Amino acid sequence: MPAVRKVLVVGAGTAGTATAICLAAGGVEVDLIDALPDVGALGSGITLQGNALRVLRELGVWERLRLLGYGFDSIGFRAPTPQAPLVAEVNDSRTGGPDLPAAFGTYRPVLARLLVDRAAEAGARVRFGTTFTAIDQDGDGAEVTLTDGSTGRYDLVVGADGIRSAVRRAIGIELTTRDIGIEIWRVVAPRPASVTRTEIINGGPAYIAGYCPTGPDSLYAYLAEPPRHRGDLTPAETVDVVRELAGSYGGPWERIRESVGDPSRINFARFQTHILDAPWHRGRAVVIGDAAHVAPPTLAQGAAMSLEDASVLGDLLLEHETVDDQLWEAFTTRRLERVRTVVGASVQMCQWLLDGIRGDVPGLHNRVAAAVSHRA
Question: Residue 41 — pLDDT band, cuts 50, 70, 90?
């Protein structure tokens, strides 16, 4: 019998929906709630590494997703000159196994919708526009009050509610999130036929100018730069900023720049990071995904780490008969060092950019690939 019979998952993002799928498919009663009024995801692209695809296949999502994105097995590097010639190409590691692409680009809202639909299909009760106001724990579970005034008793509460997790605060975990000192603009654009993989330019006015195909006719492009302290920008001004940055780069960037015009297809964010030391639980509540760890996107492993958290937590809750110290020790053993490796390497990549140092990027990539190539 599973260690839990009824679970509340707070947050219907990647970590939360994956947890709901794992547990509901295993016969656990799952309530999945999210404060947003509907399926929410930033309207930009996402790169999923092979280890993320491995979990998505286990969740029953990959076969649907693979038709709605673009897979590839290498990375190209171009020079920061007007012609942007290709200076290197590297075969990427197939961290999910030989039968999955090394990497896969798709549109974030597409992935979000597939995961929510699969959670409902597995039997989870999904409620948007709902969150909690109180979590009152005892030795056997938690009584949770929701914003609609209803209450429910759960064997476990899973906080998968993001970088500013309300569950984390409610259960008394303090965690400081640090700004890295890099800002990123992401834009959805048509895909030139020449773009068949991620390609990156290091240098110029941005630390990184890159793009990733997300489908037969689409890509997302990104420009990571130092903080400019521009203040609040109007939608038209955001278009001007992205077009100006993109105008410094050649090759496919010329076509990408021409297509930038709709501010609703532009997303701005700051690189941030934190990592929670063990334990990630307090009593009968646990935090996972971005609520526990955030890696800047330099290695494109954020979604993979969230998916792995959910998979490991689901496995343990279904395999063990009780929620006890042995279960949490097994969770820590399988997650903490792996996450530390990925977050540390992602932050190191940022630090090299900030310091203007040409670090051992291939060596770092290889170390991370070796760490995540086996199932979590």
Answer: low
Superfamily of domain 6-70+105-177+273-372: FAD/NAD(P)-binding domain (3.50.50.60)
Non-local (6+) Cβ contacts of 138 within 8 A are none
Average pLDDT of the chain, as a whole number: 96
* Res. 94: pLDDT tops 80: yes
* Helix residue ranges per DSSP H, 133-252: 166-170, 235-246
Q: Which of 316, 370, 319, 314 is nearest to 341 (CA)?
A: 370
CA 230 to chain CA centroid, Å, is 27
The pLDDT, as a whole number, for residue 364 is 95
**CATH architecture type of domain 180-271:** 2-Layer Sandwich (3.30)
The helix-helix angle for 325-355 and 361-372 (nearest 10°) equals 170
pLDDT at 125 over 80: yes
